[in-house]
Amino acid sequence: MEDPLSGGFADAPVQAARAFRAALEAMARPGRMQRLAGATPPAPLSVAAGTLLLTLVDDTTPLYLAPGHQGAALRDWIAFHCAAPLCAPEEAVFALGRWEGLPLERFRLGTPEYPDRSVTLIVEPPALAPQNAQLSGPGIATVQAAQLPETAAFEANRARFPLGFDAFFCAGDQAFALPRSTRVEAL
Amino acid sequence: MTEAYSFAYLDESTKRMIRRTLLKALAVPGYQVPFASREMPMPYGWGTGGVQVTAACLVPEDVLKVIDQGADDTTNAVSIRRFFQRTAGVAVTEHTTEASLIQTRHRIPEAPLKEGQILIYQVPIPEPLRFLEPRESETRKMHALEEYGLMHVKLYEDIARHGAIATSYGYPVKVEGRYVMDPSPIPKFDNPKLSGNPAIQLFGAGRESRIHALPPYTRVVNLDFEDHPFEPTKADAACDLCGATTSYLDEVIMDDAGGRMFCCSDTDFCATRRAAGHAGRLAPGGEAA
After folding, report:
1. What residues are paired with B199 via a beta bridge?
2. Which among A109, A179, A108 is positioned nearest to B30, based on CA atoms?
3. Containing domain of residue A137, as a range?
4. B33 inside 8 A of chain A by CB
5. Would you call B8 and A23 a contact, using CB atoms and an 8 Å cutoff?
6. Which residues of B fall within a CB distance of 8 Å from A112?
7. Which end of chain A is more exposed for a tag (fewer CB within 10 A), N or C?
């Protein structure tokens, strides 16, 4: 059994800075893969998702855990390292889980005056390949290929712009982001 | 680093807050995201917004460049550069091409930026509609409803009064066909570089507690009229030091008898050209005046 007190950053200011820089590049260049490492979270969490949690989530950001990510080991780890209150999807600032486990219709999508008050999803797909979608929009020079669990939800998300959710997709120590501004087409 | 500063000065929870704001700002290009701006060890108006964004983005491997109106060697630029040398221990440079992170006050460097670089603007008033509508509650609603007619009225009044759009800096732009954005008080000469730039552009307003952003390759359009199209303008002269005819120029008064000279506002661009052998009208060994 892993110790919930271990697996955090050894040198938080520097490791969080490097991790955030990768997250910033990911959000700025949708679909492009970045390496996100530094944390060693308990199963089933990937290194990239654990690193994102340590970098962005704290006691001011309610977190929703999807079924499959609600195990005691993971909850203890998050409680110690992030201190994020666990909450219902309606209150979540961050949501973590497999794509099938995330109740998309219940998350906050922002308001017309404050579109930033919306959820950020940290999704853990089984793999980030093969590529099945084509992305375009801000952050992408021409087009970018990516692996998405589906395309309909992201087309609908883009149609709501500037409202909507933003997502990170994490597997192993690799991650890419998909902000609401990206146009998605099935390949 | 001899003093015991946390890396890049700010505490970790403040950095997380700014980092979350930056990600939302990139997700909604041109929209101003409120953030809990902190007091910094310099007065408001000296780039506290830019400094907070820089502190949240810096990694130890970064090479930092700081410019103030294009110059690397003015008080504001020197003091911010030294602040990060002291609190983050990062390498610094004056060369645009060598920098991975550039904090700027009111200019975009002349040398084209590339992928991997981040340009961080210091922003005094981030709200392009503020001088037309002082109430925040109203400007928020105007952005929500995409109600930007007032901005076109302002540009039209310029034309009615001066015969041309007289707005010469902080020229309003529309981002990806949605948000009207103030690009901070850069000269409108620099506006074309906002659009389709391969670098990440982040804007921090400390006193106003707002952050906005342009992801790379974002479509940025200058507001104008069909019969009065946008025109980037500069002084109609060449740099008197390096002879450049395409760079943005500062005018310097030389005496009290009307003597004046022009020189590149971007000191790195000018120095690089002079090092390569270019000379202007007043350069030592250049063409005679």
Report:
1. none
2. A179
3. 12-186
4. yes
5. no
6. 144-145
7. N
CATH code (residue A180): 3.40.50.11310
Cβ–Cβ gap B19/A20 under 8 Å: yes
> Does residue B98 carry a pLDDT above 60?
yes
**ipTM surpasses cut 0.95:** yes
Q: Which of B222, B245, B266 is the last residue of a domain?
A: B222
Choose, out of B10, B11, B13, B16, the residue to mutate when testing the contact with A (most A CBs < 10 Å).
B16
| CATH at residue B18 | 3.40.50.11310
- Which positions 105-124 of B are in contact with A (Cβ < 8 Å)? 118
Among A17, A114, A181, the residue with its CB nearest the CB of B8 is: A17
Question: What is the DSSP code string of B139-164?
Answer: HHHHHHTT--HHHHHHHHHHHHHHSS
Q: Is the dihedral of CA A59, A63, A69, A70 positive or negative?
A: positive
Q: Same domain for B61 and B151?
A: yes
Residue of A nearest to B25 (CA): A116
Residue B286 binned pLDDT confidence (cut-offs 50, 70, 90): low
pLDDT for B283:
85
Tell me the Cα Rg of chain A.
16
Burial class (CB in 10 A: 0-12, 13-18, 19+), B245: exposed
Residue ranges making up the domain that contains B56: 12-222
Q: Which two tokens stand for residue B263?
A: 């020189």
Q: Which residues of B are catalytic?
A: 30, 239, 242, 264, 270
Nearest chain B residue to A56 by CA distance is B16
Whether B108 shows a pLDDT value over 80: the answer reads yes
**A contact set with B (CB within 8 A):** 12-14, 16-18, 20-21, 23-25, 27-29, 55-58, 60-61, 93, 111-116, 118, 120, 137-141, 161-162, 166, 179-181
- Contact list, A84 vs chain B (CB under 8 Å): none
